[in-house]
Design goal:
alpha+beta, OB fold (Dihydrolipoamide Acetyltransferase, E2P), five-stranded mixed β-barrel, 4 helices, 6 strands, globular, disordered C terminus
C-alpha cells in the first residue's frame, strides 16, 4: 500500500512539473524565431530580475515618433555566464541589438544571447577581458 501511494504521489508531482514547463518557456509562441530585427535606441530602464531580465528601449521611428520597446532577456544567472553584470545597461545608454520580434506585432522582442552593443561596444567582450586578466593571486 505504501509503495502504490508513493508511486501515485511521484506520478502526480512529475505531471505537475511537466505541465509547468511550456507555461514558462513560451518564447517560440510569443516571438518570431525565424526573424531578426535590429533595434537602435536609448535605454529607459533595465531590470535585473528573475525569471528574466527586462530591457526597455526608446526607438526613434523614421517618421520621428518614439516607440518604447520591451525586450525579454536571459535570467540574471545566465546573463552572468554570458559576461554581463547588473550594471551593464544604464538609463541613457545607446544600444544596438538584434531581437526576435513579437508575433503579435507589439513593440517587444526577445534577446536571448543576441548581438548587443552598448554605447558602440560589446559589454560581454569587455567583461571577459577583465576577468581573464585577473587570474588567481
Amino acid at each position: 500500500m505504501k509503495l502504490s501511494l508513493r508511486l501515485a504521489l511521484l506520478a502526480t508531482l512529475l505531471g505537475l512539473a511537466a505541465a509547468s514547463l511550456p507555461a514558462h518557456h513560451g518564447t517560440a509562441a510569443s516571438y518570431d524565431q525565424h526573424k531578426v530585427t535590429t533595434l537602435q535606441g536609448t535605454v529607459s530602464e533595465f531590470l535585473w530580475r528573475n525569471p528574466h531580465c527586462a530591457l526597455f528601449v526608446d526607438v526613434k521611428q523614421p517618421n520621428g515618433e518614439t516607440v518604447s520597446y520591451s525586450i525579454e532577456m536571459y535570467s540574471p544567472s545566465l546573463m552572468v555566464k554570458q559576461g554581463y553584470t547588473r550594471n551593464v545597461l544604464k538609463k541613457g545608454d545607446t544600444v544596438e541589438m538584434d531581437v526576435h520580434p513579437s508575433l503579435a506585432g507589439s513593440p517587444s522582442g526577445e534577446c536571448l544571447g543576441c548581438r548587443l552593443l552598448v554605447n558602440g561596444k560589446d559589454p560581454a567582450e569587455g567583461q571577459a577581458k577583465q576577468t581573464k586578466g585577473k587570474g588567481k593571486q
